[in-house]
């Protein structure tokens, strides 16, 4: 819901925060290889961010999503 709202309202700041949080979320879910991705993989990160509510990483990002939705 949070990512959908951010997309709908063009909230680039929140989407950027999600991108920055993704390596830690990947590591928390046991995906160490993905946690080490660098900026050259930004297109993959963006795709992951836009579908992050539908992946196993969503549990690690849930506090960020809840906080965002409560603020908006």
Tell me about this structure:
This protein is an all-alpha fold and 72 residues long. It is 71% helix and 0% strand. It is built from five helices and no strands. Helix 2 (12-28) packs across helix 4 and helix 2 packs antiparallel against helix 5. The protein is globular, with a radius of gyration of 12 Å. The termini are close together.
Topology:
Elements: H1 2-8, H2 12-28, H3 32-35, H4 42-50, H5 58-71
Helix pairs in contact: 2-4, 2-5
In short:
This protein has 72 residues and is mainly α. The protein has five helices and no strands.
User: What overall geometry do the principal axes of the alpha carbons give?
Assistant: globular
Largest sheet, strands/sense/barrel:
none
- Model regions low in confidence, pLDDT < 50 over at least 5 residues: none
The overall pLDDT average reads 75
In N-to-C order, the SSE pattern is HHHHH
Structural class: mainly alpha
Distance between the termini: 11 Å
Radius of gyration: 12 Å
**Relative helix content:** over 70%
Say how many strands there are: 0
- Helical run tally: 5
Tell me the fraction of residues in β-strands, as a range: under 5%
